[in-house]
Each structure stands twice: as structure tokens, then as C-alpha cells.
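Give me C-alpha cells for this 203-residue protein.
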Amino acid sequence: LRADGSEFSMRLAVAPIQFAGETKSIAFMTDITERKRAEEALAEQSKFTSALVDTAPALVYVYDMDTNSNVYSNKGLEQILGYNTDQVKEMGAELFPRLIHPDDLPAVIAFQNKIAAAANQEVLEIEYRMRGADGVWVNIRSYESPFLRNQDGSLKQKIGVGIDITALKQAGEELLKFKLGIERSADAIFMTDPQGTIVYTNP
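Here you go.
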């Protein structure tokens, strides 16, 4: 306690010394109150960030370009693909071959070079399919950016956010089928506005 009765954090260091032929102890006390407050504030901020990232309905990940492996994933990984963090880490450099659709793999690998050449804060976009734990292909749209660089300036890690667009892709495909069905119909199909003006007719 301080003289005014307030509490404070203290670091106590004790070291032995020789004095008048006897071993004595000397103590050093340091007020670390401000540092403790800063650490607590940082811990609270980290807790908030972690909760925010895990609540997001998306994949948030950090990928290491040197080891070709995922080093961080949020809970969205399990929610969207059904894998836990340990399972993905264990895949190591086999992550892409095992989870990326074979038809999309060349584009994903080529995208790695684009990210490696990207400027800091630059965000690039790519779409691809990933195999879920249940074997079903999930359409992912990812937004990625450089995250950490090596001392020589080369890209060490990238950070990304992946969104499940499977339902959106399926809706687009259904809409396209519907449109083609109308255009190929032998019947005359037309649409009018509220005033009765024809705004569309099929071919």
C-alpha cells in the first residue's frame, strides 16, 4: 500500500551480498503499476479481438508462405468446413492438394504469386471450392492481403477472410436455368410494368 492507502503493483528482486563477512540480502522494489495496467488493457483488447473474429460468419486465417501451411484459423473453419484447427495444421503443405478442388488448384497456386507480389494493405480476391469434412464441395470467396514479411522483404505470411458463397452460386445457377428456360420456350412470355407497358419479351 502507498502512504495514501492506494494499492499498487510491485516487482521485488532479492539478491545475496557479502557484508562484514556475513551473507546478507539486498532487495530492490520497482513500481510496475502502469505496466500492469497496460498489460491488462492489451489482454482485454486481445480477448475482444478474438471474440469478434470467432463470432464472424467467415473463415479468418493466416497462411505461411515459407512452410505452405495454415498457422491460424478462427472458429469459422469448423462452422463452414467442419474441420478443427488442429486437423488443418496437421495437413501442413498438403492443405491445398487435399482440400482445394482439382479444377481450382492451378488458379489458387497462381494466386499465391500474386499475393507474394502485392503491396502492403493491398487486398486481392479469388473464388475456389474446398472439400468439407463431409465430402461436400463448398464455394469460397476469399479476400487476402500481405500480413508478415521476412527481413529481406519477401512475404512470410498472408491473412485472409473467406466467405461461403455456395448458396449464392446455387441461386445464380438456378436463375440462369430459369432465364434459359424462358428464352428457349416456344410460348410467348412477356413482362409489363405497373402501367401495362411491356418491358420484356422472350425471343
